[in-house]
Amino acid sequence: MSTASTVSDLVSQPYKYGFVSDIETEKIDKGLSEDVVRLISAKKNEPAFLLEFRLRAFRQWLKMEEPDWSTVSHPVIDYQSIIYYASPKQRDKKASLDEVDPKLLETFDKLGIPLSEQKRLSNVAVDAVFDSVSIATTYREKLAEHGVVFCSISEAVKDHPELIERYLGSVVPANDNYFTALNSAVFSDGSFVFIPKGVECPMELSTYFRINSEDTGQFERTLIVAEEGASVSYLEGCTAPMFDTNQLHAAVVELVTLDDATIKYSTVQNWYAGDENGKGGIYNFVTKRGQCRGDRSKISWTQVETGSAITWKYPSCVLLGADSVGEFYSVALTNNRQQADTGTKMIHVGPRSRSTIVSKGISAGHSSNSYRGLVQIGPKAVGAKNYSQCDSMLIGDQAAANTYPYIRSQQPDASVEHEASTCRISADQLFYLQSRGIGFEAAVSMMVSGFCRDVFNQLPMEFAAEADKLLALKLEGSVG
Amino acid sequence: MVSASTSTTSSAQPMAANAWITEFLERLPAPSGDLEAVQWRGREALARQPLPSRRNEDWRFTDLGSLKALDPALLAQVEATEGTDPAAIPIADSADALPAPAAGTMRLRLDGRHDPLAGQTLPAGLTRLSGEELQQALGHTLARCGCEQHWPVEFNQASASHCLALRVSGSVAETLELVATASGESALLPIRVLLLLEEKASLKVLQVQLGSGSSLSSLVVEMHLGREAEVQHGLLAFGEGEACLLAHLAVEQEIESRFHSVVASRGWALARFEPRITQVEGAAHTDLKAIQVAQDHQLVDGHSRVEFLGPDGSLEQLHKAIVDGHGHSVFDGAVSVPRRAQRTNANQMSRNLLLSDQARIDTKPELEIVADDVRCTHGATVSRLQHDQLFYLQSRGIDAATASRLLKRGFCQEVLVDLPAAAASWQPLQRLLAEV
Description:
The structure holds two protein chains of two kinds. By secondary structure, chain A is an alpha/beta fold. Chain A has eleven helices and 24 strands. In chain A, strands 4-3-7-9-12-14-17-20-22-24 form a ten-stranded mixed β-sheet. A six-stranded parallel beta barrel of chain A has the order 13-15-18-21-19-16. A two-stranded antiparallel ribbon of chain A has the order 1-2. The termini of chain A are close together. By secondary structure, chain B is of the alpha/beta class. Chain B has one domain (15-433). Chain B has a nine-stranded parallel β-sheet with strand order 1-4-6-8-10-12-14-16-18. In chain B, strands 2-3-5-7-9-11-13-15-17 form a nine-stranded mixed β-sheet. Chain B is globular.
């Protein structure tokens, strides 16, 4: 067996989260209109300002066109055949987990996300979002003792409307792009985190997103605000069942850090990627952006992208504060017919702002994996520094790896450095490891793991192992 | 990312741009001569195709304001201009204050109107293409490089009435020097060159483009390198005032051919260089070096594309820019490695010196790779002169101003060393760095 074909066998693992949970779901009719936007808002009993926000976004959306500049290609999306709201038939968030539909809990257990707090050994608070609605948030009381707010966006709208009104759409305006306008019009749920001044969040926060129904789009919205001196580490994970049709996932994530605050945002994305012929899978069109508003504030994005038929996302940092720091660490693995066009934008506005970009792309099968990044140094960003590194690894000769790093500098006292390389699993390294008695599979796994090490090191302890396992899962199995 | 604001601001432009090109086309003299068919083709294409706008990704950073400021009616008088007596043109060097050609150099003056070969004896190895050969070969390499429909190419085709077309066989000892000077108010100088290198042929060619006043120089060069052929190409482009330059270089390389190119440019209100290289079966070597200097409100734009259509090809690319004042430098370097181009080795580096806080640099390397057994790297840096290097020199007793000059010289020399030797008489380094 040739090395190339064995390696490509290795990365072709079945998707194990592809089951559908049989849960009664309340859905509205397909299609999108102003009435649907009003209906979603009414179902969620939203205050007037939010309905107005949605309607403004919807009217903007009608005037916009789908972006066409990326390298991804897909059949035309019929926005009228998507269901914009679906929730498990169980109204009101339960006071205790005992009252939650056991089938739902079972679903999350199957996904390895135990929601019952007593079972949870590690010190992590979880918000679970099923289709359009947040199911449960754990450890809320403990967090509340520290003044930390961690709840679903819907609850936040009810309990903290002033915070929502102040921050929602302040980082990513509704008309930022086609998908943010769509999201702003129909977003259903998501997580809200607020860390007050001087508080270091006592535990990792985590949101788990699950799309269950076919034809449903998931449009969640995450908003994290860290006040002066606060810090938090946040992780999101996502899976979806296997369907032959494509589901649209158009999320918006907004982060805000004030003076000396830090947000670390980690994503392990494992949406269903479609079968080997590219049938089915999630279209993951996500806008993520953080604003370092305060001096010495820091936003760090870490992402491990292994799923989705199409990934289109650029977690970005707008470095407004002096000495603010932006980081982006990414591993993107594509296989079969997956397409990923992902990267970051670092917009340096404040003086002495610094950013680091480390991107590792692995393309196998017939997939296409593009890194697209922008580093922009504004005229006032005296002493700003950027370092970018993006490496690609190709497995098999049918996969494509593209890099499009844009650099724009208007400040002579800033330095920007960019490096990129492309390689494959080298036969001599493989041979060396095998000659030391390491099996082929373990050797490949080891090399991929080494290739991604710079990124995995950035993941929170609890999830670093998970991410490594996720890649290993895609790499383990069928060797001759 | 396309933001709402860019799309609204540019929506007003196409009208004005179209009026500009329409007027230009209306005033052009009727097509005639060797290139009549090509002129028709170019004009039809321009009539259909609006001026590139910044909504087009390839023109995103390139503001054509300086071009549109030229008077299309005057530009169109390309051939009607009262020329000097054709017989007197080609040999006259002395009166123009141009440096004397270096020894072993064959200098040709290109003015876009007259035959530069009239009254000249070509060195051994160079022959003029017959009319029939020209018809056959012209445009072939442009098509092969996928740029025959690009706006600057069509613009040249619409207006150029003459093409310097040469066949090269064997090793040509003399350096071919092609000098074109454009001056005057809204004067257009369209230059077209075609070089066909036979198997194992080799040639050194130095092009000098000088522009002043509010002239527009349009340059389209096609080169076909047969097996094992070698070209050492230099382009010195120095402008001043409102002068603009659109230069397009299409090169087709057969197996084991070697192409070295060095571009040095400074002083144009707007200059755009588009080298497009295609290694038709791979296994060739391409060396691209460029240094561009922009100051005042100048815009200089380097857009390269190298495509490997077979295995074992290699590329070494080094692109440098020095930007001062309100200058703006753009680099967009694409490298395409499809599946059949296994074992390609491509290295690209973009180094930029940003010397003023009003200046701007946009750099965008692009790698598109589908083959797995390749080595491709690219890198980019943007900064001012390095403090530690300045410090080192100063600690050796060299004053700050001299140290900074020394570093800038070194920055440029890395590119200029590979120019054909004949370039020395043009003093490229002095021209690049005078008063920067």
